[in-house]
Design brief:
Distance between the termini: 34 Å
Number of strands: 14
Helix content: 40-55%
Strand order of the largest sheet: 2-1-3-4-5
Radius of gyration: 29 Å
CATH architecture of the largest domain: 3-Layer(aba) Sandwich
Length: 448
Amino acid sequence: MVMKSRILIVDDEPRMAEVVSMALTRAGYDCETCGSGSAAISAFEARGADVVVSDWKMPEMDGLELMRQLHKRRVNLPVILLTAHGSVPSAVAAMREGAFDYVTKPFDNDELRALVARALEINRLERENRYLRQEVASRYAPDTIVAESRQSRQTLDLIRRVAPSRASVLVQGESGSGKELVARLLHYWSDRVGQPFVAVNCKAFAEGVLESELFGHEKGAFTGATTARAGCFERASGGTLFLDEIGETSVEFQAKLLRVLQDGEVLPVGSTQVRKVDVRIVSATNRVLRDEIAAGRFREDLFFRLNVIPLQLTPLRERRDDILPLAHFFLSRFAAETRRPLQLSSEAEQVLLTHDWPGNVREVENAIERAVVLARSESILPEDLLLEQTSRLPVAATGGSLQDCLDQAAAARIRGALEAAHGQRAEAARLLGVERTTLYRMMKRLGL
């Protein structure tokens, strides 16, 4: 059942309160009328409200004082004031104090309904923004980052010191070692946190497409450019632009990127007018750029522009103190999704500690997600991880890489569950002991 938005209507004239109530009830709102400010406060404390529509002039407590009292109880509660024409200046002053808006009497029903709808929408967006800010704060809070090893603690300390600056950062490390997480920490721990964070995988685009993606294009600049489009530099203006896989770009593109970084302005494809941009650049690569420079595949001047602050991530096999904390971190997340009180057996922990982790942190996450799907009991066993037995098999025996073998095993288990459930995904998820969202995510990743 969909809950109706609740509107509290306050007016010392019963007839006027009834007129307002009828207008809003017809729009689908749940309305309650009160004859005084004190009655409205009591009703709000007892039953709450999403919006308050109050008369400005009332003998016991006027609309402005009622708004002040209600905002002590809920600071962002939208209050709309009904006022006579002569009190418009006072109503405008009330808006400076926090009133959402005002309507003059006699009012138009459609105008009032539209105003209430706008108040509800803005209030909804504000709630969502508060929720998202809380989520971001909890996800990127320093005490939520797994960093037990000496190397990880040193890296986090460097990120904290670097984050407030505007300096470009080059993050180098193996695939799966957490380069994008570092970029996001640099953004969320800086004063740019309220501005956009835009991530671009440079390897995912052909060279001509990458130029348009980063710098934007004008309408008609090329076939298919039916409208003008701002590039990532403009979309990230005021915030952070993360250029992942920067080592995969061509020397020709690198020259264009260098010019943007030097001048602080972009020239969209097909345009003759440059546009100023203000972005903090964080780039990342799993290549050794010094070697790429020596081979003539990467411009040295661009390297120095990007590498103002170098940040080298240590592979997981060289910081084994992080392995079990990472595994428990991912297990707590996936176990919460499946609502199963899962735990790692001591044998499984030993397998985790002795594995080489060529896929680094991403491989740990995948292994734990698989284990949550495959585990038959509340204790995760070594065979659920699919690491120990498959790591001893040669590539030829598995028909691909180690990751391919592990994914094949997980896919086979999911196919078996789907077959037993006659294709019903909800039932397959129940047989596997996971939430449907977890099953859908794994099916999407495995191409099922």
